[in-house]
Amino acid sequence: MSTKKAKVGEAAEVSQDQLSPAEEAALNKLTQIQDEIEKLNDEATEEILKIEKKYNQKRTPFYGRRSEIIKQIPNFWLKAIQNHDSLADLLSEEDKKVFESLQDIYIEDFTELSSGFKITFTFAQNPYFKNKQLWKEFRYDKDQQLSVIPSPIEWKSPERNLVERATKAFNENSPSSKNKRAHDEADSTFFLWFNPEDQDIEVAEIIKEELWPDPMKWFFGMGNELEEGDDEDEGSYDDAEGEEGDEGENGENGENGEEEEDEGEEGDDENGDA
After folding, report:
1. What distances in angstroms separate CA 55 from CA 48, 62, 91, 113, one per listed residue?
2. Is residue 107 within 8 Å of 117, Cβ to Cβ?
3. Alpha helix (H) ranges present in 71-148?
4. Cα-flanking dihedrals φ and ψ of residue 184, to 5°?
C-alpha cells in the first residue's frame, strides 16, 4: 500500500474527524492561548500608538525649526530626492525644474495615528502652477479601508500642465514600440501622483518612512547605503563632505610612498653590486 506525501507548498487540511479526543482537547487549549496572545498584541499596538503620538508631539517644534533652516539651502529637497533611488526615478527632467522651487515637505500624522497621515509640499512661486501647497491625504476608516485624497493642481496654462502633456504623449506613443520603456519614462511626471485615480500608498510610505525622518543623509547621498544595512562604519555628515579632500591627500601620500620605496630598492641594488 502506497502513501501520498503532501508536496512542498500544499496545504495539509485537517478535519475534526481525523483528530483523536486528546488532540482535539490540546487544540482547543492552543486556540485559547493563541487568543490571549492576540489580545496582548492588540494591547501592545495601542500602547505603541500612544507612545508614538506622545513623541510626535515632542518632535513637532524640531521639525518646524528644521524646515526653516532647510529653506536657507537652495534645492535641498530636490537633491535629497534625486539621491533616493526609488524617488529619483519618478522625476522627469521638467519635474526637476519645478522641484527647484520646492521649499518644504511636511508629514502630519492625524490625531488618531491609525487613521492616517497627510503629506504637504510647499513651493515658492513658479511658472507651472498657482498652488503654494500641494498635499495628499491617506485616511483609514474604522475597518482600515484606505482612501486617498489629493489636492487639485491649478496649472497656469495648458502648456505648463505636465500631467495633461504626459497623458497625451503617453496615449500617442505606440504600446508596441520597441522602445516603450524609454517612452514611458519620457512621458511620465511626478505630478501624476496627485491624480485622484492614484490610490497607491507606496510612494507616500517611502517619503514618510525613509526621506522625511532624516533628509540630511539623502542630501549627502548616504541614504541608499544606510537603507541597505551597510555594516561598515556609517561615518557622519562631516565625513561625507571631507571624503574628496581625504582622497586627494591619500593619493599624494601614496605617490610619495612609492617614490621612497623605489629609492630604497635602488640603494639595495648598489650595495649588492659593491
Report:
1. 11, 11, 33, 12
2. yes
3. 76-82, 85-88, 93-99
4. -60, -45
State whether residue 169 is helix, strand or coil.
helix
Which residues in 102-223 belong to E strands, given as ranges? 102-109, 116-123, 133-140, 146-150
> Within a 13 Å sphere around the CA of 31, how many CA atoms are in the beta-carbon half?
6
Q: What is the per-residue pLDDT across 206-229, written as a single tens digit (0 to 9) for each?
A: 999 999 999 999 999 998 876 665
Rounded CA separation 86/1 (Å): 57
pTM of the model: 0.70
Check: CB of residue 121 under 8 Å from CB of residue 103. Answer: no
Q: Which one is predicted more confidently, 186 or 100?
A: 100
**DSSP assignment letter at 233:** -
pLDDT digits (tens, 9 = 90+) for 231-245: 444 455 655 555 544
What's the residue count for the chain? Answer: 274
Q: Which of 87-91, 174-178, 255-259 has the highest mean pLDDT?
A: 87-91
**61-107 pLDDT, tens digit each:** 999 999 999 999 999 999 999 999 999 999 999 999 999 999 999 99
Give the pLDDT score at 86. 95
CB-CB contact of 222 with 234 (8 Å): yes
Query: Three cell numbers at 66?
Result: 528644521
133 and 120 Cβ atoms separated by less than 8 Å: yes
Alpha-carbon distance of 173 to 192, in angstroms, equals 17
Percentages of the chain per state (helix, strand, coil), in multiples of 5: 60, 10, 30
Burial of 22: CB neighbours in 10 Å, binned 0-12, 13-18, 19+? exposed
| Residue 116 contacts residue 139 (beta carbons within 8 Å) | yes
Query: Which three three-digit cell numbers place residue 158?
Result: 495648458
